[in-house]
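PROTOCOL LOG
Step 1. Enter all chains and additional molecules of the complex.
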Amino acid sequence: MNAVANYNFAYLDEQTKRMIRRAILKAVAIPGYQVPFSSREMPMPYGWGTGGVQVTASIIGPDDVLKVIDQGADDTTNAVSIRAFFAKVAQVQTTTHTAEATIIQTRHRIPERKLEAGQILVYQVPIPEPLRFLEPRETETRKMHALEEYGLMHVKLYEDIARHGRIATTYAYPVKVEGRYVMDPSPTPKFDNPKMHRSEALQLFGAGREHRIYAVPPHTDVVSLDFEDHPFEIQHFEQPCALCGAEQVYLDEVILDDRGGHMYVCSDTDHCEERREAGHVGVLGMQEAAE
Amino acid sequence: MSDEPLLRVSNLTKYYGSRLGCADVNFELYPGEVLAIVGESGSGKTTLLNTLSANLEPTSGEALYRMRDESWRNIYELSEAERRFLTRTDWGFVHQNPADGLRMTVSAGANVGERLMAVGDRHYGKIRDTALDWLGRVEIAADRIDDQPRSFSGGMRQRLQIARNLVTGPRLVFMDEPTGGLDVSVQARLLDLLRQLVGELGLSAIVVTHDLAVARLLSHRMMVMKDGHVIEAGLTDRVLDDPREPYTQLLVSSILQV
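Step 2. Run joint prediction.
Step 3. Record the structure below.
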């Protein structure tokens, strides 16, 4: 026996984990449906991923390998803190490599590497309700989901086209799951929406402040909403990653100096590192090597 | 007008707890007919309208509606999904305050297009063309299509609300004081427009108003309410020109003459 009290495995007590697992099972059974759960206070502020952390804590086992990303990066404060949190309270192995991870907790991005069967992607969700900014009443939005009244979602897309000439929503782009529920894929860029479609990995969404869990089981249809004459399309980048030369990936702009210098690099840091280790170089990567 | 009614209301009663809203209302409404419900404030006309439009559950009584497939259904026994579908396709509701019936934060075009998108229209170009057509019919300039209704005047908002309701080709429209809060010249144009649309589209309408002039201009028949009861009903010109009940006589003689 230790003199100092220990945390229970993965911080949450067993009763809480069972409660959350029941919510997750229900969410998996009804893809895209928001299941209420009794969200707990976590040792971090709301908005830092309390929902995702609770989901991860409920599903993680001693043999799991955890990866945490924030905006695609493994080395930002949020990602480092959550990884350290689980290393401490669950003594699990952590990694930055997508291929090695069994559980990946994410905010904003889906890794560039295709996820495989057996992997679980846990999203941290700030606002789970896709209709929230169109219809403020929760009683009404629940009714709209129940009766499949999703015309309002297209009103938003209509407004985008009327104002900007195209669908200007770039993140949290609404999707229809398995032909039934309209779902907010959390603040991921719409670039990642096609990756959710029939993914081999299980995708779990936790919204701590809003007390909701929802899920997309493997091989589930996830279709982005659009108009017949304004079909859904993802962002395109004009140049490849400046460090690894990758194309068809999501890029971040990095300001280099105060004279307008900037570069575009992979938002997925692990993907970029792996490519560079394999010998791929981009424009700025070459200069670096030459210096 | 066809021989078969669109709506059959029998013994409709609504209590708020022990307080009476409206009691024992009976009438039939025929296709293409406009029925005005008049009476002073607190006489139960808005309660009756909200009950008829299925926004309120009646305490007793029924309202049978002839659906598009010619079947008769009691509107209070429809499932919620059926009722909501009915209210946004075959019915319209024009509120006194346009802000209650419009989405103030989306453009006029989206306001008109919302019902189309709700019934499954997914072609932006067609939705926009329909919206433009309807804005034209309610005399809103085409270049205001992308403006939000909060930049519209009261009269324009009211016309936009009408367009938004009529876009799905409803057969029955409920109106709650449609000209309330508008100045008289705007009222006159709106009444003109309503009369024209009702005639063109063969709409049936139930109009609640305290303004007898509106009733005279718009309606074929009218019902006079007092303390929750219908005290007199008949053809509009008969009721207004030859009122039988003392209260109706009082109401008619209270009209200000200019």
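Step 4. Note key features.
Chain A touches chain B through 18 residues (CB under 8 Å).
Chain A has eight helices and twelve strands.
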